[in-house]
Design goal:
13 helices; three-stranded mixed beta sheet; alpha/beta
């Protein structure tokens, strides 16, 4: 539901370009889509959620919201539940009671930042305090809580983004989504970029930052269910700068292993190592198109990769230096 219910036009927002669509689904569309999904998924439907994204679900016209929920509710007997996304300042006890009645199980808040100056500069229209209040009420009502953050917003920096992640962790969400800021054409952010008022993170800077954020959330058992924007042709065609990559999460996970290796070997004179990783993490360690291996070889390292499936997915250990 691109941009539906949003009371503000944020500095970065061009929903049509991000999603590649502007059409608003009807209740009949929901029924048709879910009926087909039941047929296509079979038993997998039990592990699949119905999700409404793109706008601020609890801020859309109430009758329209009820139309969509009424269409989806009968399918909650087949699917895992209903997930919605909304604004932190569009949550109160009345709407939470209503969502519970219609089978909603997960609520994600588009918090974006926990720095009030950043929120104001980007015309979010809410404060960090709204995120704290809404998160607590969502959890108290028994919903699964998800928080969404954007890194590299206008007015932000590494320290502010790290502090946002720390604030998220303190709220104990079940899930997070991390979206590096992508500059879309026909937005305030694009104007700031062209004028030199806004200098975005480079792709390498975003990868470095988000590789750190992954480990922060991982340590606290918070699941990152999305890192980077979904691919669409319009997203690529209508964005500026170089901060979008279709395999962004893969780049960040590879960076974790590269940084870990460099850190562990920085004080060692040898260039030959046995490396131990979980077998499922092999592609992450190697890097996209073996980029990690190529960079380490260029630095003179010779590696033998071994598997230890007792290691966690981002853990790397060195064997005896050969």
């Amino acid at each position: 539901m691109p941009h539906n219910g949003c009371p503000h036009k944020c500095s970065f927002c061009n929903q049509k370009s991000i999603t590649g669509q502007a059409y608003q689904p009807t209740g009949e569309d929901v029924k048709t889509t879910l009926t087909k999904a039941v047929s296509d998924l079979g038993d997998r439907a039990k592990e699949t959620e119905i999700a409404f994204f793109g706008g601020s679900f609890t801020a859309i016209d109430r009758q329209y919201m009820l139309e969509l929920l009424t269409a989806a509710k009968p399918f909650t007997e087949v699917f895992k539940g209903i997930r919605i996304s909304t604004r932190p300042d569009c949550i109160d006890d009345e709407v939470l009671t209503l969502l519970k009645e219609y089978g909603v199980t997960s609520i994600e808040l588009g918090a974006q930042s926990m720095d009030n100056s950043v929120l104001e500069l980007n015309k979010r229209g809410h404060k960090a305090e709204d995120v704290v209040y809404a998160s607590k009420r969502i959890k108290e009502f028994g919903f699964s809580l998800g928080l969404q953050m954007m890194t590299g917003l206008y007015g932000s920096d590494f320290d502010k983004d790290i502090k946002t992640a720390e604030s998220f962790i303190a709220l104990k969400p079940d899930t997070v989504r991390i979206y590096p800021t992508v500059i879309m054409k026909n937005t305030d952010l694009a104007d700031f970029y062209h004028s030199g008022k806004f200098v975005p993170y480079t792709l390498d800077e975003s990868v470095e930052l988000c590789s750190r954020l992954i480990l922060m959330f991982e340590r606290d058992g918070i699941s990152i269910i999305r890192l980077g924007l979904h691919y669409s042709d319009s997203l690529v065609d209508d964005s500026l700068g170089d901060n979008y990559h279709p395999a962004f999460k893969e780049l960040c996970e590879s960076k974790i292993f590269y940084n870990s290796f460099i850190e562990q070997t920085s004080n060692l004179s040898s260039k030959k190592f046995d490396v131990f990783i979980n077998q499922r993490s092999l592609s992450k360690f190697l890097g996209q198109k073996k980029s990690n291996i190529k960079k380490l070889n260029a630095l003179g390292y010779e590696l033998t990769v071994n598997f230890d499936n007792e290691l966690s997915k981002y853990e790397l250990k060195l064997g005896e230096v050969r």
